[in-house]
Amino acid sequence: MAMQEQARRPGRRKGEKPNPIDVHVGARVRLRRNMLGLSQEKLGEAIGLTFQQVQKYERGANRIGASRLHDLSRVLDVPVSFFFDDMDPVRAPAIPAGYAEPGGAEAFDSDPRRKRETIELVNAYYRSEDPTIRRRLFDLAKALSGGVERAIEK
Known about the structure:
By secondary structure, the protein is mostly helical. It is built from seven helices and no strands.
């Protein structure tokens, strides 16, 4: 009797890199979660998952299904299209599955505007209801950054 081959689920083979689209969608989940000040654990509880699963989604290691993406959009209070924003619509479909776009996730992570520190700073700035204090903070940040630039030039 010939041994029947075990049916393999379609998807990535072990060791293959995540699809760049999955990485992008996961990064957008992480961005919005951080903007709202939610931990991975709190987001997981809201959609019935463990923080480890949220972590895998955010890294792009696990693909997010349509129903789960809908749940995430509801909890994170954004349209589903938010997760695909900033994606190059011309290049995205042409990227072969399993090949990471050079600098994709790394470039996203290195953008200072997407770091938790930046998001917390902006949130703290807008929590101040006094426009005079906000203006002083703004002027201080500009003065400090100018000082750093001048020190680098020397």
